[in-house]
Write a structure and sequence with these properties.
KDO_kinase, alpha+beta
């Protein structure tokens, strides 16, 4: 049984933090900055997306540090500042809370470690620290070099179905946000703007259609990408099967 997250709040002037004491007993707000970890020589790697995602090694734990960046057209003018309408409504607080729910449900996703919200007048910037899925790669990286067998596609579909059966909406379900580890266990990551919704609604189909568009996009973009339409049917078969 998963132990409940022992959340603790730390507030210093315009900085508001929440952290899980079971995962990070020596917490400092500076830990939500990559500069802190670079000084500690604790950065084990990074990945580029909308911004830089930092991989952290700390006391035999592996974490992921992510700053919240805006996308789309507005991101060209305002890269990381959001309107403040209460701590519980911040992007970081909502994702932290959802990751906690996923942990309690036993779903394969990162666990929440800490988040930080920095107020600046009517706006805020935010950062999130979560656990890293061990020895895992995203599907785009894997399919760029090799194909998957039918059973793995079915496992991916079945895993997504587990999330959907619990009403877990993933705002950006795409091939980059599905991981496979060395034992071929499937996990989902990046739950920014995700939420728990009523089960069996139209959003589930829209979620799957978004994922299909993602595979087709990567196939058109990456030469030799190991994905075909038949793979989608294999994934759907796993999705339709009751777990």
């Amino acid at each position: 049984m998963v132990k409940p997250c022992r959340e603790k709040v730390l507030q210093q002037d315009n900085v508001y933090c929440v952290f899980d004491q079971e995962k990070i007993s020596d917490f400092s707000p500076d830990m939500l900055s990559e500069k802190y970890w670079l000084k500690q020589n604790a950065v084990s790697g990074s990945a580029q997306g909308r911004g830089t995602t930092w991989f952290i090694s700390h006391q035999e734990q592996q974490w992921v540090l992510r700053h919240y960046y805006r996308g789309g057209l507005i991101g060209k003018f305002n890269k990381d500042s959001y309107w403040f309408s209460g701590q519980k409504n911040t992007r970081a607080a909502r994702e932290f809370s959802l990751l906690l729910t996923l942990e309690q449900l036993g779903l394969p996703a990162p666990h929440p470690v800490a988040y930080r919200v920095k107020r600046q007048g009517l706006f805020y910037r935010a950062d999130l620290l979560s656990t890293r899925i061990k020895d895992a790669e995203d599907l785009v990286a894997i399919l760029s070099r090799e194909s998957l067998d039918k059973s793995l596609w079915a496992d991916i579909g079945a895993t997504i179905r587990r999330f959907h059966d619990h009403g877990i909406y993933h705002h950006d379900l795409n091939a980059h946000n599905i991981l496979l580890d060395r034992q071929h266990k499937v996990s989902l990551i990046d739950f920014d703007r995700g939420e728990q919704r009523a089960v069996k609604q139209s959003w589930q189909q829209a979620n799957m259609e978004r994922l299909l568009r993602s595979f087709r996009k990567e196939q058109n973009k990456i030469p030799g990408f190991h994905w075909q339409e038949d793979n989608w049917h294999m994934l759907q078969q796993g999705y339709r099967q009751k777990n």
